[in-house]
Amino acid sequence: MEKDISKIKESVTKEVAKTKTILDLNNIKTSYLGKKGSVTKLYEKLKEASAKEKKSLGKDINDVKTFINELLKTKAQEINNSLLEERLKREAIDVTLPGLTINNGSPNILEALIENLEELFISMGYDVVEGPEIEKDLYNFELLNLPIGHPARVAQDTFYTKGEELLLRSQTSPVQIRTMLANKDKTPIRIICPGKVYRRDDDDATHSHEFTQMEGLLVDKRITMADLKGTFDLITHHLFGNDVKTRFRSSFYPFTEPSVELDISCFNCKQKGCHICKQTGWITIGGAGMVHPNVLRNCGYDPEEMSGFAFGFGVERLAMLKYEIEDIRTFYTNDLRIDVDRRDM
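Above: the chain sequence. Below: its structure as tokens.
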């Protein structure tokens, strides 16, 4: 029995040393430790040994079994390490090569235009203020000098969410009201209010039931239409260039008095007449006016001491003019060319 164990150790050591694959190692394990393997047969011979020899021989058989398992485990690790080294050589990466360029996303064209205007107004001392899109009738209409039954309400087909108490705001003017009411000391105010507004409107090339508005409000002592005109000129020249002319045209808004339409000279045809200005030479880009005394009173200001102006633009309309976009729905179709190609025009 001892001679058999010695031969098995010598034999398995030689076979494992020559082995190059895991498959061959598994075959060796089967030939020695399998059901019909050489080591397994040694256990059968124990039956022929005396009781005194069985203990010693049993230990020797267990030792050779452990020896073979350790030998196979060590060899398997060597083979796997060798395979890994070969694979790393085949798939070597040159870390000195430049990395892949990952394209960064760009802001939506409306977002970029809003940020552009925000930077302009912040440079003039304005604050950017936001408010809720689901608004109370009190802030959206009543405190803006549009009480229940006012005929001007008909001009705004409003989305009501709960009777006539809550609605989707039809303008960002409620943010102005909230800001003035929150100003307990009634100190001067300079704010702009960008945000989404909602009106039941025809979904055609120039109108949408949802659009972006930017309104502005300045309240202080001795504010006049001249201040509004100067501010309008600054905005216009910033967006469309210094050659563009501006004008006020009389209009009506319940929350301003006097009220004006904000027109600019057509930058496309230089006032000769074209499809953009509808052959008039002028383009309307917003509305404005001096804050109505009733609105000031509603918010706790004394119109005898304080005055102010307010204005509003449709951001989509500004973008359509600035970037020559003919259909307002283009902003919401996820066409990347609108965001990437036109911003540099």
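The two ends are 95 Å apart (CA to CA).
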